[in-house]
Amino acid sequence: MNPQDSEKLRFIQQYGSFPLAYSALQQGIKSFNTEDGIISYRKGKLGLKAYVLGDPIANKDRKRQLLEEFVANYRNPVFVQISDDAASMLSEMDWYVNRFGIETFIDLPEYDTNLKGSKFEFIRRQIKAAHDEKITIEELSQQALENRGVSIKDVKSLSDEWIKTRKVSGNELSFMVRPAVFEDEPDVRKFYAFQDDALVGFAFFDPLYQDGATIGYYADIHRNLPSTPKGTSYLLAIEAAKQFKDEGKQRLELGISVLSHLDDPEPFPHSSFTKAYLNWSYRTLNDVYNFKGLEFHKQRFRGKERTIYYASKNKFTFLEITDLYLLDNINVFSQVLKAIPKWINSDNKEKEKESPKNQN
């Protein structure tokens, strides 16, 4: 690990209790550094803005100052997948703050990893299907994996096969999803699925920290072969959850359902255009990103949910949101150009609803 990443990791291990904190270490992410903490960001592919990834990595009572210092150095940055606390601070600083989806997490001390009761019926069926196909799960280091006869090249090959099946034009996501690192990493947990000793899937879990201690994990990466028996992804997650719970960890973060629950009331002053564009994306772009499928998958775990937000100084966010999709390796240009008249009309209708003459 280079000196810059070592300095990032020092702050992450102290204050990185949210899912995207460890993503500050992904290749291409820059950091705005102060003695109190860091802000992780990346310039958009169109070169228009700096996109901030998650909350500031700092003590809570220093986050507002860190945000103010950052926006003084970067003209109108965009804040992506931020918490209610950071959203509130930015709203007070006159940013438009919009719902951007929900994060699902498992409260491990109270979660029934034995999956009893009717609410877990679906996931029990999935796990039984995996067990019926002789799927087994093991947590392995790089050396233990190689001792089992599986090389890093084999894992990368499985990953490449999985990427080819994705809706995102066969590209690996980045920025909001930390790209897979196949070698050992500090405190990252790696679980592998086998069928008759053949590797058929894997899941990587990034650490969550508080005051220097690991308090939980974030399910950052999950991949399997197209032929992998159904239920394997659920089995990987539940076996990891059992292990983390036995160790006394507090949370397993399952990640974001992007653009979910956008029709819920907006708690902060927001951009109606941004709301319309994001709603259109959720309804229309499932051919390039599986918004609804990922939301369904996370809901099956019956975990808890929290709202996350998108914050911008601009009301008209067409270019900056499109640039965010490109930054995530989601190419939406053709779909966007076809639908411009529709979402402009949707925005106009929402403005009519919000006008005083239409309110009692």
Describe the overall structure.
The structure is a single chain. The chain is an alpha+beta fold. The protein folds into 2 domains: about 5-105 and about 255-360, no CATH class; about 105-255, 3-Layer(aba) Sandwich (Aminopeptidase), CATH 3.40.630.30. The protein is built from 11 helices and 12 strands. The protein has helices at about 5-15, 65-75, 85-90, 120-130, 140-145, 150-165, 230-245, 270-285, 290-300, 320-325, 335-355; strands at about 30-35, 35-45, 50-55, 55-60, 80, 95-105, 135-140, 190-195, 200-210, 215-225, 250-260, 305-310. Strands 1, 2, 3, 4, 5, 6, 7, 8, 9, 10, 11 and 12 form a 12-stranded mixed sheet that branches. A hairpin with a 6-residue loop joins β2 and β3 (about 50-55).
Keyword list:
single chain; 360 residues; alpha+beta; Aminopeptidase; 2 domains; twelve-stranded mixed β-sheet; 11 helices; 12 strands; 37% helix
What's this model, at a glance?
37% of the residues lie in helices and 24% in strands. The chain has 11 helices and 12 strands.
Q: Span between N and C termini?
A: 61 Å
Q: What sequence of helices (H) and strands (E) makes up the elements?
A: HEEEEHEHEHEHHEEEHEHHEHH
- Largest sheet, strands/sense/barrel: 12 strands, mixed
- As a whole number of angstroms, the C-alpha radius of gyration is 21 Å
Strand content: 15-25%
Proportion in helices: 25-40%
Oligomer: single chain
Main structural class: alpha+beta
**What is the number of helices?**
11
What gross morphology would you assign?
A: globular
Total strands: the figure is: 12
The residue-averaged pLDDT reads 90
Low-confidence stretches: none
Question: Total domains, how many?
Answer: 2
